[in-house]
## 1
Amino acid sequence: MDFLGLELNSSIKNGLSEAMDSGRFPHAAVIEGGSHSDRLKLARLLAASSVCNGKGEKPCLVCSSCLKSFAAAAGKKKPVLKALEDNLRHPDIAEVEKEKDRVQFGVRVVRPVIENAYIVPNEADLKVYIFPDAGVMTAQAQNAMLKILEEPPGYIRFFLLCESRNSLLTTVLSRVACFNLGAVQPETSSRSKKPELARQAAAKLARAITAPRDYDLLIETAVFEKDNQLLELSLAELELIIRDALVVKSGGELLSSSPDAAKVLAKALPVPRLLNLAEEVRKLDDAVKRSCNNTLLISRLCSRLRA
């Protein structure tokens, strides 16, 4: 495999080359570590190599697929490198972006991708989907992908990019191969842990809602005082937990990462109260997105969730 000058350690290059050149590349791969730009350029290179129909080393840069991927003249590396910086142009390669007004990847983005994935490729032998920010996918969105990751069509390849695999559910990680580009800087590592911190915070909030004292809920909101992003992520997770509590009441598939917290809510609260809670959480989430004062938001959260 030709890495076109990308700076990668030899073990990563050898592992990727062996998998790509042998035709045994996994249907889904996590690329973690390095910088966001490094991960994205590598994923685009692997995607172009996946649809390349040339002989020998991939990407060959001269076949029809490569010319479309890179919007380049045969063998010209300058536009190829530019395409790795910007975007690929092949109809069977798609980059899946989160909604612009959202911190997280929601299930509303993922479900259409899954439906489209079952449609055969336009031109190449494979269809490739790149998720540049897979690390901020909600637990619900990740769970929605489990079936296609477990039993994918033979012509599908997914690249999930994240700062650390720890931001993905273990059920997702059990269905993919992981490639690490190198150590993550401490500040980057702390950001990668935020989705998991949000799941933990949401589970604590759910239990505090049913606690005997108002003070218990107030204690759990202290973590949000200077972290608006964590508050938004936690509200999204809390909405999933409340949804699961309703499912416990009626039967169905649990989607949140905190089923125990959902069961606590389901046991303590009737359906009308749970529906009201879900509505209040959505209102709070909207307020967070409007960048309302964090102190006022926390006060509102405590009063509305305990009402």
## 2
Amino acid sequence: MMEFLVELYQWNKALHIIGVISWMAALLYLPRLYVYHCDAEPGSQVSEMLKTMERRLLKVIMTPAMVFALIFGALLLLTSGMGGWGTFWLYLKLIFVTGLLLFHGFLARWRKEFEIDANRRPARFYRVANEIPTLLMIIIVILVVIKPS
């Protein structure tokens, strides 16, 4: 099994990166939709359209992309000799990835509030929240590329 993973390492890495890019795009776009949704009158045509967009983005793109990124990321971690379970940067990266997972969960919860017209947060809240995945992504990329000890 391990030899098979080693042979597919480059493919796993490419598929992991594709999953991460797709997930990040959705993590960055969904809070922006929430900003627009705050300005829409509940029950209006715009509000209902945004509900559809938010639901589809979360369920059809964001969550599958997250799963895709996690599966291929796990395969990379399982590839013997390719990673570094003994390296500090990897544990830091996993902590910040956990932050992205938590943010994903918050976005899902907030979508449910918009779905039932129960949002009580201002647009500014979502504008600020929109910066969280960017900061986490920057930290993760630096950790992966620099690999500090």
## 3
Amino acid sequence: MIMKSTVKSIFLALLTIFSLNVSFANSSEENTQHPKEKEEFNVGEMIMHHIKDAHEWHLFGPEHGGTSIYLPIILIDGGLKTFSSSNFYHGEHKSAIDHKTGKEVSYVAGKGAASAYGMFHEKIYKLENGELNFEGGHVHGSIKPWDLSITKNVVSLFFGAIFILVIMGSVAKFYKKNGAVAPKGLAKYLEVIVVMVRDDVAKANIGEAKYKKYVPYLLTIFFFVWFNNMLGMIPFLPGGANLTGNLTVTLFLAVCTLIVTLASANKNYWKHIFATPGVPVALLPIMIPIEIVGIFTKPFALMIRLFANMTAGHIIVLALISIIFINQNAAWGFLSVPMALFISVLELLVAFLQAFLFAMLSALFIGAAVEEAHH
């Protein structure tokens, strides 16, 4: 599996170089015709373009004019309005002056069915007199409709969920048909991991008496995080968006753990929150708010840890590849590409480790909530 992932990482690095090289070729041609409009390679903009959510699935080539899969836009603005995101990505590129900073800001005005809207940093706003106004780097005075669009992360979420259902369904079908026999095929590889989550995560942290009913949840959250972490390393394939590097997704996963924890909490857990044993009554007004805050800081840490670790890996790889284009010399590829591949191999470990930590800490929080009082 490591060899296959390494080959995919090499392919990703080469594809990134090719994509950015096409961008440079286009910009160089434009700069030859218009020398005054020459722009330097913007590393931050390139990285954010690759890791953030979008209304298109960019495959390769330059950011504008490359090969992309355009996703459906679904807006609620005085009714339901749907159209293709190509109406934005092939729309009119406009500029406006920021009233606060005096700097020029670029945005896209939609065409066709999207002619009443503009897109700025992948957010859709209603145009005012055919324009967007800016103040302090933000859109000012424009209505923002409800955006229920199928974005790149949503597609990746659906693909990841279906992928897990197919994989786990085939493994469950094998055991249903053959019973408790020596595993074959996919079951041979996944049984070890399932047993690990059951014994080393659930049983070890929740306790032998109560762990069984939480194993399905912990297995689901482990495989969901792990599979999507791995898919996120191949961004040009379906399901390969930076899904676990999206705060909305990690927030939802953390909230799920919080709900399971609070729903499972027994009398002993709440006693430690509102009447901590051994603490003087005079200190309870101080301790109770601290304990209540602690309930929410635990899932918050889960959310930030997964988001930060997965996003950081993508940023480092893209930053290393960018060295070639910052120096505008292909010879730097002999340094940056091996370093990027090394980080990509480390990401394989991080992808598994973050899934394991998310499941283990979830089990730890649940175990604390169901633990009985010690006498």
